[in-house]
Design brief:
The protein is mostly beta strands and about 230 residues long. About 15% of the residues lie in helices and about 50% in strands. Strand 5 and strand 6 form a beta hairpin. It is globular. The N and C termini lie far apart (about 70 Å). The structure holds copper (II) ion (CU).
Length: about 230
C-alpha cells in the first residue's frame, strides 16, 4: 500500500516535471514559420496628382494596393498565427511621412498603437472599423505622436481627411504576426511547437488559412497563393 502510494507520488512528480518542461520549451524554444505568399496577377498601383501641401507631399501620390515583387511574391500581406499568444512585441508605430502611411500595413496585438506625424503639416487620422470604435482625430504639425487604442482583433482601414489619397491598414491580431516583404516572404519566430493555424490577409485579395506542424528549433515553410477577386 505504502509502496503503491510512493509510486503514484513519484509518477505524479515526473509527469508534472515533463509537462512543465514541455510548456517551457514551447514558450522559449519554439519554431519558425516561413510563409511565402504568391499572387499570379498584376500589381495595382494608383498614381494621383497632388495639389496640396506639395512641399511635403510631392506632386504625385503613389498608392500601392497590390504589390507584386520577385517570383510573383505578394507584398503587404499579413500572416498571423492566432494560436501563438503571449509574446507581445514592442508597441506598433504607424507614421505619416511624405503624406503616406509608413508602413502601408502595420501589425499589432490588441492594445495601443503610436501614431506619428513626421511631416510638419496637419494630418487627420480617420479609421474605418466595426469591432473597434472609429478614430477621427486631427494631428496638427506640432503633435508628433499620439497614442490610440485598438483592443479588438480586426483589420482597420486608415485614411486622412486632409489628404484624400492617404491609405493604410492596421492589422490587430491576437497572436504572433508579420507582414510580407515585397517578394511575399515573412518569418514568424518563437511559434510554440505543434499544430498551428496560419492565416493570411490582404487588403484587396481576401483571406486564406492553412494548418502546419511546427517543430521546436526548426523552420516550417508554408505557401499560399492568393486569388484575384
Ligand atoms: Cu494627411
Amino acid at each position: 500500500m505504502r509502496k503503491a502510494l510512493m509510486t503514484t507520488t513519484v509518477l505524479t512528480l515526473v509527469t508534472g516535471a515533463a509537462m512543465w518542461l514541455a510548456a517551457t520549451a514551447g514558450a522559449q524554444g519554439g519554431g519558425t514559420i516561413e510563409a511565402d505568399v504568391k499572387y499570379n496577377g498584376a500589381p495595382v498601383v494608383e498614381k494621383l496628382k497632388v495639389n496640396k501641401d506639395t512641399e511635403k507631399c510631392g506632386t504625385e501620390a503613389v498608392v500601392e494596393k497590390v504589390v507584386v515583387g520577385g517570383n510573383k511574391g505578394l507584398g503587404n500581406a499579413v500572416v498571423s498565427v492566432p494560436g501563438a499568444k503571449g509574446a507581445t512585441k514592442a508597441k506598433a508605430v504607424l507614421d505619416q511621412h511624405g503624406c503616406k502611411f509608413v508602413p502601408h500595413v502595420v501589425v499589432m496585438q490588441p492594445g495601443e498603437i503610436e501614431i506619428k506625424n513626421s511631416d510638419d503639416i496637419l494630418h487627420n487620422l480617420h479609421t474605418y472599423s466595426t469591432a473597434n470604435p472609429a478614430i477621427n482625430k486631427a494631428q496638427p504639425k506640432f503633435k508628433k505622436t499620439m497614442t490610440e487604442k485598438l483592443e479588438k482583433p480586426e483589420f482597420v482601414k486608415v485614411t486622412c481627411d486632409v489628404h484624400s489619397w492617404m491609405l493604410g491598414w492596421v492589422a490587430v491580431v491576437p497572436g504572433l504576426a508579420g507582414v510580407t516583404d515585397k517578394d511575399g516572404v515573412v518569418k514568424i519566430e518563437n511559434v510554440p511547437a505543434g499544430k498551428q493555424k496560419v492565416e493570411v490577409w490582404h487588403e484587396t485579395l481576401g483571406k486564406q488559412e492553412k494548418e502546419v506542424e511546427v517543430k521546436a528549433g526548426a523552420v516550417t515553410k508554408v505557401s499560399f497563393e492568393m486569388k484575384g477577386k
